[in-house]
Description:
With 280 residues, the chain is mainly beta. The chain contains 2 helices and 16 strands.
Amino acid sequence: MPIGRRITAFTAIAALVGALACSTDSSTSPSQTVADSEIDQSVASDVGESFADVVDQYGENESFEADLSGGSSTFDVAAEGAGTQSRTVTCGGPDGDGWFSCIAYTERGLTITRQVRFWSGGSLALGWNPATTDSVNHRWTRTGTVNSVVKPGKVRTLDDADTASMVVQRGTPTHHVWNGAGARIDSSTYTVNGITRHFAYTAHDTAAALTFTMPRSENPYPASGSISRDLELHFTAGGFDKTITRSAKITFNGSSVAELQVGELTCDLDLVTRVVSNCH
Length: 280
């Protein structure tokens, strides 16, 4: 796909890009304090659960684009717990720039909007063709409040906007290679001994060479590539107030367990259960 035709991230993303350090903390510390170890573990858990969500979303993009036909797409979405379920979304278009815009729908408590655009032979196309499609552009947003699947009692609020382009690399096997960016204004809350912990994140993601091997039904997890995140966290618990910046990265190897780095921690992330473990 020509460089001039690649989509850029939403304007909000540019505002988030800054010189975020790998690990910088500042705090106001009254008599009520929260241990750094609890904060670090919660940040790793939040980032891991969020990254697993993003991987699911890329998987749904794959199913969505291949099944868009006749103004609607019946595609696979991640179900509560493990597995997938099918849903249908109606789309209009294409507009003058080739974009199909789809009605907002609710999935796992989140409201999701989508746009998609197809290219074949360097020109705009009217849909997916397994023999001729060169690349596909995606835009999507997710907003809403959901319960954490990892920590009972934790509530997550998401306000995310992403863009990505998928390029088809034909061969034996064929690969779909994704590059993209995302902006996140997310939060999580839970209570300990009557004191509510509130984690408010502002973050920027970069997906680099996120590669799926075809057919995806036999290869559900990325074979290679990574997603990186720069985040700033404003943490409060009662009168305790702390601001943290971190760099995070998830690296894929084709299995359901990916390597997760958050600041100085290196952990395992189970993409199915969302559990972060073996941190060191």
